[in-house]
Structure formats: structure tokens, C-alpha cells
């Protein structure tokens, strides 16, 4: 299992593992003890490769704590340690070629149920996605790609990402942080031509561009994805940053869609693009009946194709519902398809909050809250947010005699060792769920009713 921020060593480590037939599990720098323990246990990781202190967190200490709890983990290797340097200095040795059809690594899913799922991607399926992404994003040997988001994530790894840049023979610049000051400094200094961000960052950069002294003229393409880029933001990006907008709608499970660099403005501003491959099969279905909706109508997106998984790693039960019997992945996204095949993401059917591109599974956070002695029940829903698009709001019913407070519960969740983006932004402690007629409704219906209520407030 790998937990590395945007540092150059990421690439030699990952390629070394691929060459040796060792599967990386791509944890994010934001993940903490509880997520790392789950990934390590579920994948039966043999080692954890991490860094020491980074952004005020001691990753090495967390990794050692996880290693002490998970039997399979025999080693913690810290980039920059003597042990790491000694390994890096080992003489090269001949290795058998990896099987192109074999699993190359386990990517993480944002998840919608209790714990995040692991996604097995093969060398050839991923290379196909990377190669076509590099082509569709116009990467050339003289391109300079800025990795703005954490490179372990599927988007900056492969859409077109650092791997797309390598494939095209382009240069990669690793941004330690995604803020406008850091990114603009690097764009100017390294003559960056292309990068990818999430909508809240695109909005922040667009504002910052109006008052920067930095020369951003090298920037040709800004990819925006991970969450819906609204029309108004989409319109501001080109004029503010002096580059082309390219929308990307992707998922670590496979399917990636891009607006094309030569698409008409209406498509670029108003859709999330069309699939990479002519062999990507797209179905837009009625979420209730499963029947295909009429062309142009909204429905749930199902997909099957050459680089989309047919099942999560060791998750038979979940796979039975996450995929159709004939192998289509149920993305949980609600989309509308334009006549040219472009998809517009209009909503979501999955129990997930998209916090500016960071995915939060409602059930995972509810489980953390319900571990608190003073909590009888919890329901986590999305509330609209002008900056992030959505934030998390936890409705909490106290146990008899208990009176937990919002700050106390937020602290409790944080101290259970979860990524900061999963700590509920808002906590509403309520005597009972403030939804009439809740009675015997499922958690799913309850969440929907609470989300509707939160939107009105
Ligand atoms: P994951 O499965 O965790 O890799 O997250 C992929 C999900 O992110 C998709 O299924 C969508 O819900 C969301 N997503 C990614 N890109 C976009 C986009 N451009 N617009 C709207 N949602 C997006
Ligand atoms: O959100 C995502 O997971 C995502 C967004 C854009 C992704 O996996 C991708 C492109 O490849």
C-alpha cells in the first residue's frame, strides 16, 4: 500500500512495483488510520510505503500503527529514509515481464456503502485509458503537465495525468499543494501547458487570476472534473485564465469522458463530454424499472467497456448489485445524453456526497457517528454549498439521556482517524429525524427527505 503525496519519488516507486509485479494500493494523502487499516487488511498488503511528516501529519507513525494491527503488513518503508535510499541504490536486475492482462494495482472508489471499495485495474486496460486520454487532451512531447491534485487519485494519475504525460514524452511538474499561489508560481516557472482541477479550485483560480502578477500565458488547457462544473463557472474559465476549458467526467472504475478540444462551445460549456472509446457502451435507464429512457431524457448511467471493471476486489455481495448481470457498472450518476453522445451529469442516485470532487459515502460517516455512545442514530446528507457544490450535514438523534454537541461529534469522528474531508461540515442534533411520516422508511428514503429539508433551510 502506497501513501505518497506529490513528490518525484512517486513515479520510480510505482513503476518499480509494476515492473516487479507488486500491486500498489493507491491510498490518498488525506487518508488516516481507519481508512488505511481497512485498505491494508482488505488487500492483505505486505508493506506500506509512505513519507515521514507531510502537511503537519506524521504519515510514518500512522503507517507503523496500521502495520502493528494488520498481520499481513511486514514492512513500513519511508521515502527518504536510509533504508529507502539503500533499496533505491540496489543494482538493477532482470525481471520477467508482467502479464499485460493481469491486475496492475488497486485503485480506490469514493464508495457509497460502509467502506471504500478496491478497484482492480489491469496493465492493458489502464494503458488504453492513459494513451487515449493523452491523445484526446492533445499532449505532445513539448507539453508540460502540472499534477495539481494528489497523484494517487485516478484523475491526476490517468486523465491524462502524470501517466498520460509520460506516455506522450511530456514533462510533469508535481504541485505540493493545489492553491492558486502555488500553482501559478509553478505554471510561470515551468511554462506549464496543461493541468487538471476540481470545480472549487477552478473557481478559486479564476478569481485569483484577476489579481496575479504571474505569467500564465503558457497554459493551453485546463481540465475540470471530479464534480459537476456549472455553466457559469465554465463560462468564466477561458476568459480568466486565457486557456481552453476541457471538461472531464471520469471514475476510478473505468469510464472517462472528455469534451474534445475542437468541440463547439455549447458542448464544452454545457456537457461533461463523451466517452474515450467507441467501444464504451452507455445505457441511460429509468432507475426504477431499468428500462432505457427516451433519447435526451434523464436516467441512471450504466456502462460497460474495454477499460471499465466488471467487479470490485473481493466484494461478491456488493458486486451483485453494483453491476448488472450482463456486466454493466451502475455508476450511480444521473445523466442526460446529447445527440452527439455527450453526457450531461444532472444528479446522483448513489448515497454519496460529492464535496468538490472528494467523495464521501453517507453510510461510512454514519457508522463513525454511531460508534459514539451518545448517538442513537445518524443520517448524513448533502447540503448545497456555494464553494464546494455540496457539503456534508449529519442529522444525529441522541441516545436516551445523552446530549452530544456538534463540535464534540466532529472531534470524535476526526479522532477515529478518518480523512478530514469526511468529518461532517454541519451537525444537527435533533430529538427525532425532522421528517414527517418517517415511520418504517429505509435509510435511503430518510436521507432523501432530510436532504430535501436541508436544501429548503
Ligand atoms: P469514483 O467512483 O470515486 O472514482 O468517483 C467517480 C464519480 O465522481 C462519478 O461517478 C461521478 O459521480 C463523479 N464525477 C466525476 N467527474 C464528474 C464530473 N465532471 N461531473 C459530475 N460528476 C463527476
Ligand atoms: O472523480 C473521479 O473519480 C474522476 C474525475 C475525472 C476520475 O476518476 C477521472 C477523471 O479519471
Automatic annotation (TrEMBL):
Keywords linked to the UniProt accession? ATP-binding, Ligase, Nucleotide-binding
UniProt domain AMP-dependent synthetase/ligase: residue ranges: 2-313
GO terms (molecular function) for this protein are:
acid-thiol ligase activity; ATP binding
Ranges where the AMP-binding enzyme C-terminal domain occurs: 364-440
InterPro entries on file: AMP-bd_C, AMP-bd_C_sf, AMP-binding_CS, AMP-dep_synth/lig_dom, ATP-dep_AMP-bd_enzyme
What SUPFAM superfamilies does the database record attribute to this sequence?
A: Acetyl-CoA synthetase-like
- In Pfam terms, one family for this protein is AMP-binding_C
Which PROSITE patterns does its entry note? AMP_BINDING (PS00455)
**Similarity section:** Belongs to the ATP-dependent AMP-binding enzyme family.
Q: Give the matching PANTHER family.
A: LONG-CHAIN-FATTY-ACID--COA LIGASE, NONRIBOSOMAL PEPTIDE SYNTHASE PES1 (EUROFUNG)-RELATED
- This chain's protein is named Putative 2,3-dihydroxybenzoate-AMP ligase
